[in-house]
Amino acid sequence: MKARVPQGPSMNAMIKQAQKMQEDMATLQADLEAREHEISAGGGAVKIKINGKKEIVGLEIAPEIVDPDDVETLSDILTAGINEAIKRVEETAQREMDKITAGMPGMGGLGGFTGLF
Known about the structure:
- Strand 1 (36-41) and strand 2 form a beta hairpin.
- It contains two helices and three strands.
- Helix 1 (9-34) runs antiparallel to helix 2.
- The chain is of the alpha+beta class.
């Protein structure tokens, strides 16, 4: 007995939906990579710009927080800011990807798929 592969309008519609989702995902990935996010840390003393590829593309440090006797504080502020910037990129990617995959059964969230960007 041969296994039957379902065909007909529902299978064709599903294939078209999957193809459209694939195209939308490729477009979204390019859009996300081009986006820039600006994050402030240390009460605005440090501003970090990051793109969707998680590359730091800009960094501003207020001169008044640069203290040669307290490099640790500056290091802590930079670390917190960079981590927040990365988190913002990942959350944005996940939120946008969820919009695309919402209509596909079993695809909601893609189980962290956006981490591949």
